[in-house]
Each structure stands twice: as C-alpha cells, then as structure tokens.
Automatic annotation (TrEMBL):
Residues 194-293 form the Pirin C-terminal domain. Binds 1 Fe cation per subunit. The lineage of its organism: Bacteria, Bacillati, Actinomycetota, Actinomycetes, Kitasatosporales. This is Pirin family protein. Belongs to the pirin family. It comes from Streptomyces mimosae. Its cofactor is Fe cation.
Length: 322
C-alpha cells in the first residue's frame, strides 16, 4: 500500500526513548487512500514515529465495498522498507514489478521487500461480491542499513504459526517470533508482529521480550490491555522492559501486537521512500518520474501514481531522540 498524500511532509523518524513500561494512547488521523478507501493512520504520529523497526501503520474498515470500487491503489514505488498486508475481511490483489501476482485473504501474509527499488499496486478483485467487506491493516518495516539495498522480493504465506495460550488467547505470528513460534516471513531486524484473538471472557498473560518495545492496535471489539480499555482503531504504545502483557476481553476482540528492538539508526521517510540522505530521496523520486530503476507493474488497469513535489525544506535524517 502507498502513502497517497500529494503534499507529504518529511517524517523525522524516531521518538523519545523510554527505558521502561508506559501506556501512551495514540490518536490516529483519517486519510483518503485511492478512489474510495479511507484509512486511520496510526503511525507515524506527532507523538510516536516508530515501534522497533515498524514505521507505518494504517487501519482500514470494516467497510462494505459492494457498490464501490473497493481498494484501488495504483502502481507506486518503494525503497528501503518492507510492506506487510494483513486482512481480517475481504481480498486484495497484489501486483509488483518483479512479476508477483497474489490474492491475499484474511490472516494470510503478503510481505514485500522493496530493498533497492520496487513498484507495486493493490486493489480489490472485481467483481467483489464474494468478499463485500474490506477490513485490515497495512504496515511498513524500515530496513536496517546493511540490508536496505537487497534485491526486491515478494513472499506469500497462507499458513502461519499459532500460539494458543490459556485464558482465551489465540495468536497468529505474522512476522518474527512469539513465545517460541516463528513466522516464515523474512525479517532483517529483531521484531515481532502478531494477531491476537481474544475470546469472550479472556483473561491471559502473553510472554514478551524484555528488551523489545511494544504497541497494540485494536482491530475488532473492545479489549483491556495492561488495564487500559481500548476501542477499535486505538494504538497503545507500551514501551520497553516488559516480560508479559495482561490481556482481558468481556466479548470477542482482536488486536495486533507490534514490537522489536528500538531502531537506533537515523533515517528519513518521505512519501513512499525510506532513505538516509536528501540526495537519496531526490534520486529515487527522479528515477520514478523518469521510468528508471523501479520496473513495470503489469496487469493493473490505469495509470501509475505520480510522485509529489519535494518539500521546500531540507530532508534531514533524525534518530529516535528528538
């Protein structure tokens, strides 16, 4: 998925470093995406810009797309990151410039590594009468410096490991490792992403890595995370220093757990690019405009996305400390 903002401000990634557990509720903002989809952008925000290597979180739906085009994100470029497509309802067709074509369905992992350069599109299949509800999340992972120029690639994993704990908790491991269960998705830094399903009456404790920082995104239903009551679409930053996470739910609910070692590198995120210098971003934008480097997405009906103008202010890399 893309950042379709045609006036994107430079994002100075990183945030104030916490050395212990916290409970910071983050406000999202509504952002139009494509022809008919509106998302809740929960990362980056003014208060929190990264969670480990996770640097971008959009939550969308549940939306009835029966009489709409559904998701329509034209071909657009990426460098320096991975995209994670995660659905709770509906279907999304992924195409990219390395020749990948995949239909991603609920609780299946679509993982794209942009590396040095890739282009892709995402759209609801047509007709979509068999999948009329669209609901899910799109996430980005920043690639660390030693790996940010790897060859572009796409992975599709229909089967993912699960962790079934006591107290009504059932977790699907999207990326990384959780309680000994490891996702088959390729990662380049220590992190975890997991979909936690909470049955009615859940009262559980999930083991965590003490040196990771964590956050949870509420996808469906209301839940209580470490004593904080969360409505759907909420992002709660939890900080570091935790060895377990208390989870409760009176009724069925689902949350995404995101975590990882704090990302210490300095970087700049602008539009759909993650780089380290102004010159790198300028080159990527120029290459996309000139039709170089990113390849061609075959099969999408419609024009590709044009790059917005660069901001008048310099793009300066920043670290986690503001």
């Amino acid at each position: 998925m893309s950042n379709l903002d045609q006036r994107p401000a430079p994002t100075l990634c990183g945030a104030a470093r916490h050395t212990g557990p916290v409970r910071e509720l983050q406000e999202g903002r509504r952002v139009p995406l494509g022809e008919s989809t509106v998302v809740r952008r929960l990362l980056p925000t003014l208060g929190r810009r990264m969670i480990g290597a996770w640097c971008f979180v959009d939550h969308y739906g549940p939306d009835d797309i029966t009489d709409t085009p559904g998701m329509r994100v034209p071909p657009h470029p990426h460098i320096g990151l991975q995209t994670v497509s995660w659905l709770h309802a509906g279907e999304v067709v992924h195409r990219d410039s390395v020749g990948s074509l995949a239909t991603i369905r609920p609780r299946e992992l679509g993982l794209m590594t942009s590396g040095r350069a890739i282009a892709h599109s995402e759209e609801s299949p047509r007709p979509h009468r068999d999948a009329p509800i669209l609901h899910g999340a799109q996430l980005w992972v920043a690639l660390p410096d030693p790996h940010r120029h790897v060859a572009p690639a796409f992975e599709y994993h229909a089967e993912l490991p699960r962790v079934t704990g006591g107290g009504g908790l059932d977790a699907t491991v999207i990326l990384g490792t959780l309680d000994g269960a490891a996702s088959p998705g390729t990662t380049y830094s220590p992190l975890v992403g997991a979909d936690l399903t909470l049955a009615a009456g859940t009262d559980a404790r999930l083991p965590l890595e003490e040196d990771f920082e964590y956050a949870v995104l509420t996808i469906e239903g209301e839940s209580e995370v470490d004593g904080v009551r969360l409505a759907p679409g909420s992002l709660l930053y939890l900080g570091e220093g935790r060895t377990e996470l208390p989870l409760r739910a009176d009724d069925p609910a689902s949350v995404l757990l995101l975590g990882g070692l704090p990302f210490e590198e300095q970087l700049v995120m602008w539009w759909n690019f993650i780089g380290r210098t102004q010159e790198e971003i300028e080159t990527a934008r120029r290459d996309w405009a000139d039709g170089q480097r990113f390849g061609t997405v075959e099969g999408y009906e419609g024009p590709r996305l044009s790059a917005p103008p660069l901001p008048p202010t310099p793009l300066k890399p920043r670290g986690r400390t503001r």
